[in-house]
Design goal:
Elements: H1 2-18, E1 20-25, E2 33-38, E3 44-45, E4 51-54, E5 60-67, H2 70-74, H3 76-84, E6 88-93, E7 98-100, E8 106-116, E9 122-131, E10 136-144, H4 149-160, E11 163-164
Antiparallel strand pairs: 1-2, 2-11, 3-4, 4-5, 5-10, 6-8, 7-8, 8-9, 9-10
Length: about 170
């Protein structure tokens, strides 16, 4: 009997760990893509329809927002700097963006780094520009230097979960 109870509790525990939400971005019915984020990362959209999530130990932060115009695209660098400036310094992009194909969609990946203002630890950041014929969105990721492998692996699964909404 104890083995059965233990088995049920173990199954329930692991089921809780892997629960995730499939989010439509920017919104269901008018989505560019879907992305699946673990519940433990507490994904949610704010009043501006920005999707945000943070890993449980706060080593990784991600945000997704829609670009409304070409002006927004030109201001992408400023948007990234604004996300970092309260807690980071020495913010730098690493070269030119590279082509990316998230979920088979067209995209560009920008990479950069900065230093934490408090302890000078390294911060890596990425901005994945996802483009369809009608829309563009940015998936921004910020990761601390000491991000555990387990959290990095979950981030990789999140990124692999991106699919065009029409699939």
């Amino acid at each position: 009997m104890k083995k059965i109870v233990l088995s049920i509790l173990t199954t329930a525990f692991f089921a809780g760990i892997i629960q995730a939400k499939q989010m439509h971005f920017p919104e269901k019915g008018d989505a560019m893509f879907t992305i699946t984020i673990p519940d433990a990362w507490e994904p949610e959209k704010d009043d501006d329809n920005i999707l945000e999530a943070t890993s449980p130990d706060e080593h990784i932060y991600l945000a997704v927002w829609e670009l409304e115009s070409k002006k927004d695209l030109k201001n992408l660098g400023n948007d990234i700097e604004n996300l970092l400036k309260d807690h980071a310094k020495n913010i730098k992009l690493d070269g030119e963006p590279v082509e990316a194909k998230p979920g088979g969609m067209d995209g560009l990946l920008f990479k950069g780094h900065a230093k934490d203002k408090e302890d000078d630890s390294k911060i890596e950041f990425f901005a994945l520009l996802i483009i369809t014929e009608e829309k563009a969105a940015v998936l921004y990721i910020e990761a601390a230097e000491d991000t555990p492998e387990e959290e990095s692996a979950k981030l990789e699964k999140i990124l692999k979960s991106i699919k065009p909404a029409k699939e």
